[in-house]
Specification:
Blueprint (H helix, E strand, L loop, with lengths): L1 H4 L22 H9 L10 E5 L8 H5 L30 H8 L20 E3 L10 H8 L9 H15 L3 H9 L1 E5 L4 H9 L4 H25 L3 E5 L8 H6 L15 H24 L4 E5 L1 H10 L14 E2 L15 E2 L16 H9 L22 H12 L11 E5 L8 H6 L29 H8 L20 E3 L10 H5 L11 H15 L3 H9 L1 E5 L4 H9 L7 H22 L3 E5 L8 H6 L15 H24 L4 E5 L1 H6 L12 E2 L15 E2 L16 H13 L3 E2 L7
Parallel strand pairs: 1-2, 1-3, 3-4, 4-5, 8-9, 8-10, 10-11, 11-12
Antiparallel strand pairs: 6-7, 12-15, 13-14
């Protein structure tokens, strides 16, 4: 059986929008609920129940195969996130995983292994690979066409009702449970067409049964509403014509058969026809069920954005599969343990010719937050047209991510650090003096003008604030003596060090700026005395705040190394740098802080300024990423010492949440961005470091295609990738959005 469905059992490659993070795509959901309010603000959704096919199957099909062989039970499936096969038809997570994480829920278990016994406290996934909307009998009776598996929407709904009868017996209990749950209806229906098309049946016949596919999805939605569901997400179909398996199977020498993205035009037109019919059905259901939130998710539009602008997402060619064989689309063999993995899955949209990579799923889930914000979208419950999820990404996520900002998890952010998160303090200190950070191209991407940040756009703290549904954190110094800082304040200053200047003077070394962690902490305490006078008020304020301790400490080493001082001496600094960070953390705990995030250092050996200053003709000096091996090893040594110290502090303060953020590991993801070792803004030379980034420098392209901005600092794109790894995991323990 599996040989029949291993290619077509789920779906096709897709993707679309990033630049961030966080923000987890169709998490419109909670935003919609906040607008139409069927679910209490701070509960959002307590469970997810999902139906569908291999796009979101999290293990049901693998369970059904029992002890039989299956390529999905073996690597390279699961190689990316789980580091082992997980039952998903992907290299890592699938869409429903990102939805669950953004809702601060556990990853959804497949239902079939525990259909008769599981309590499914956070919901369950009924999706099975190769499932169809219409049942096998429909195709056999009407078209004498046999489907390879018996799984369909009817069988999934029957299982759902069986589970409901056990975990919420009785009408009232069922309605109560479903009223606080999110129902994800698909994507489903794609296989009704996939099996037909790939069996080379007459294409036009599929148009004849398209209304029946839509009707079955609509009937399923109505059925879960009748059971008590109050929020149902109904995704559309992806662009079939962009899937490598279709491109290989329907190759044509006629250029008019292809659209501008290189996809097969006829199949994409068919997908659009299905989606338009589904939009109309969702609109009809809305009118019949005015007390229910029905959300149409435009997977097609999200994916097409990805195919049109692959370089924006670090994808070389979105029409190639990652795991397969030779051939123009890498479809020369089935993805299994003997297949070729053509590179990092993060550089591909399609995993195995039919299913997507985790990268593609995460981009769909993250969306493109720079697009139209949710607040501009109007009332979702009355929209008659498709809502492209990627347009509403960030605002949606922010409204929905756990119980955070809106629900009292963190009401403020107070931050310490250097230029990585400085949001305007240094520019304020510069006063009327000339400063490149006051002029374009700084700020060109998001703000469209210089913002005081040392980047083309937002920095990591901005993504954290947005994900917590808080305003951007203002620099503290402009309002040092009068600001009330209702949502927090940023004390970070460019060029700051963890250790004070006199520490280095004793070693015959001068740091260029007087600002250290002790200085910032003193500013913070002065501010606290003004905005929360008294011990009780201070503790109450800090108890509901998030403290970001850096990144700080990098400059203690940077100024030494870039002054070409003896490298090994810097190892002597590490215990003192870590001790300075630790003592500040302990002082904050003493003041009343309850949640502190402590980031590690970045891989300094990958920074263009280092690569230029320490160029070597010895290949052994470079690692597999073409970064300087010695400096990355040094950063790792700092990080290990810091992690050990965080562990010690956790043991001493069991009532305090201390979160170590692995910026080093998160930054290594950036090697999927074209050439991450080139500065976007600078001059000539192998790393574009031939000139300082200022208004006269060369901007070598769209900052979204670069990891590094000016030779030292990162682009908004890079900060977004790092922030997403901290917000949603796996580069923070626990992930920041799961820390409440």
């Amino acid at each position: 059986m599996e040989s029949l469905i291993r290619r077509h059992g789920g779906r096709r490659a897709v993707s679309p929008s990033s630049s961030a993070a966080a923000a987890s795509f169709i998490l419109l959901l909670c935003a919609v609920v906040l607008l139409n309010t069927h679910v209490a603000l701070c509960g959002c959704y307590k469970r997810i129940f999902s139906f569908g096919d291999s796009i979101i199957d999290t293990g049901n099909f693998v369970y059904l195969t029992g002890n039989g062989p299956s390529q999905f039970k073996e690597l390279p499936y699961g190689m990316t996130y789980f580091n082992r096969p997980s039952g998903r038809i992907c290299d890592g997570r699938v869409l429903v995983d990102f939805y669950a994480q953004a809702l601060n829920l556990s990853l959804l278990p497949p239902t079939i292994p525990e259909e008769g016994s599981g309590q499914f406290e956070n919901g369950a996934n009924f999706a099975v690979l190769a499932s169809t909307a219409l049942g096998p009998d429909y195709f056999k009776t009407k078209y004498n066409f046999s489907l390879p598996v018996p799984y369909c929407l009817d069988s999934q709904l029957a299982s759902f009702k069986k589970v409901l009868g056990r975990i919420a017996p009785g009408v009232d209990a069922t309605k109560s449970l479903l009223g606080e749950s999110l129902i994800v209806m698909g994507e489903i229906g794609g296989n009704d067409y996939n099996f037909w098309f790939t069996a080379r049946q007459p294409r036009e016949t599929a148009r004849q049964y398209l209304p029946d596919v839509i009707g079955r999805i609509g009937a399923a939605v109505q059925e879960v509403i009748n059971l008590g569901a109050k929020t149902v997400l109904v995704p559309g179909n992806f662009p079939f014509g962009c899937a490598p398996e279709y491109l290989q199977g329907f190759q044509s020498s006629n250029t008019s058969d292809y659209d501008a993205t290189g996809c097969i035009a006829w199949f994409n037109d068919f997908s659009r026809q299905h989606n338009q019919a589904l939009v109309q059905e969702v609109a009809r259901l809305r009118s019949q069920n005015p007390g229910v939130t029905l959300i149409y998710a435009d997977y097609y539009g999200a994916a097409l954005e990805f195919f049109k602008n692959p370089k924006n997402y670090g994808i070389s060619d979105p029409l190639l599969e990652c795991c397969g064989g030779d051939g123009p689309y890498h479809t020369g063999m089935t993805c299994n343990k003997t297949a070729k993995v053509w590179g990092s899955p993060a550089n591909f949209a399609s995993w195995d010719g039919v299913h997507m990579t985790e990268k593609a799923y995460s981009i769909i889930a993250d969306g493109a937050e720079q697009q139209q914000p949710l607040s501009d979208m109007g009332s979702f419950s009355h929209q008659k047209h498709s809502i492209s999820v990627y347009l509403v990404l960030v605002s949606a996520v922010l409204l929905l991510n756990s119980t955070l900002g809106l629900c009292g998890c963190y009401k403020r952010i107070f931050s310490f650090g250097d230029s990585i998160i400085d949001s305007g303090n240094f520019v304020h200190i510069a006063g009327d003096h000339p400063c490149p950070f006051k002029e374009p191209p700084f700020g060109m991407t998001y703000f469209k003008h210089p913002s005081g940040r040392i980047s083309d756009g937002r920095v990591v703290i901005d993504f954290y604030a947005q994900a917590l549904q808080l305003p951007f954190v203002p620099p503290s110094l402009p309002e040092k003596d009068r600001g009330q800082f209702p949502h927090g304040a940023n004390f970070a200053v460019l060029a700051s060090t963890a250790l004070p200047p006199e520490y280095f003077r004793r070693r015959n070394h001068t740091v260029p700026m007087p600002f250290s962690l002790a200085t910032q902490l003193e500013w913070f305490k002065q501010t606290l005395q003004r905005i929360a006078p008294g011990d009780a008020a201070r503790r109450a304020l800090l108890g509901e705040s998030l403290i970001l301790m850096g990144e700080i400490g990098g400059n203690d080493y940077n100024f030494w190394f870039l002054d070409h001082k003896p490298r090994e001496v810097a190892y002597q600094f590490i215990p003192d740098v870590v001790a300075s960070i630790s003592s500040t953390v302990q002082e904050l705990i003493g003041l009343g802080a309850r949640t502190i995030m402590i980031p590690g250092n970045f891989p300094t050996g990958c920074v263009p300024a280092y690569l230029s200053a320490y160029r070597s003709g010895n290949p052994a000096d470079y690692d597999e990423f073409r970064c300087l091996r010695w400096f990355n090893a040094f950063s790792a040594a700092h990080n290990q010492a810091l992690l050990n110290e965080v562990s010690r502090l956790k043991a001493q303060h069991p009532g305090v949440r201390l979160i170590y953020a692995d910026y080093f590991g998160a930054a290594l993801q950036l090697f999927r961005i074209n050439d991450p070792l080139l500065a976007c803004c600078g001059g000539h030379g192998p790393y574009h470091t031939g000139a300082t980034c200022d208004r006269t420098a060369t901007v070598w392209g769209d900052p979204g295609s670069f990891a590094n901005w000016d030779g030292v600092h990162m682009t908004e794109k890079a900060y977004h990738v790092i922030a997403d790894g901290v917000l949603n995991g796996p580069f923070a323990d626990p992930p920041l959005l799961h820390s409440c």
